[in-house]
Amino acid sequence: MMILIIDDNEDIRFTIKEICSFGEWETCEASTGKSGVELFQKMEPSLVLIDYHMPDWDGLKTTKAIRELDDSVPIIILTVDERHEIADQFLQAGATDFALKPIKAPDLLSRIRLNLKIGKLTAGQKNVFVEKGIKAETLRTIKHFLYQQERPLTISEIQASLPVAYQTVHRYLNYLAERGEITVLSEYGSKGRPKNKYKIT
């Protein structure tokens, strides 16, 4: 599998290349967002790592440009900025995950493996998505979030952690349940209707 690294810092690109080599992935690299998008079109990588802070084209603009070319390739943002509003902007632009700088090899390896797995699961489903009103990037965001959870969650709990409306989360969970990709657990309290909780299968 090929991983595209887009970062203006040569030392960081070298470090990431070494980490990817350990994970037995091939890499290609670009020092600017614009050249990264051009390389993306040539190499068609399985995953893209993008630095947030770059001159000219920053990580957000680069993410949007790649999403216009490909709506399913996993995109991991490299950043030192942990602000929630920044994360929301990137998720809405089509990013799938984040890795904080300074980069820690075990964390980055884990995130690459997880996103490659999800990318493989969602690739080639574009026609189905169109028919059911499902967007690949939103589906990927919800599945990625569920993969990271250790316990089943309600729709409200999922919605509270993602920049996605309650009704949208509900529609996507139904889609995943139809495909057998999540398990729906009904919890019966002392009164009222049972509460459904969801976990990835």
From TrEMBL:
Keywords annotated in UniProt:
Phosphoprotein, Two-component regulatory system
Question: What Pfam families does its record include?
Answer: Response_reg
Report the residue ranges that make up the Response regulatory domain in this protein: 2-116
Keyword check for Plastid, yes or no.
no
What InterPro entries does UniProt report for this protein, alphabetically?
2C-system_Tx_regulators (IPR051271), CheY-like_superfamily (IPR011006), Sig_transdc_resp-reg_receiver (IPR001789), WH-like_DNA-bd_sf (IPR036388), WH_DNA-bd_sf (IPR036390)
Enumerate the Gene3D superfamilies for this protein: 3.40.50.2300, Winged helix-like DNA-binding domain superfamily/Winged helix DNA-binding domain (1.10.10.10)
- In the record, which positions carry 4-aspartylphosphate? 51
- Entry protein name: Response regulator
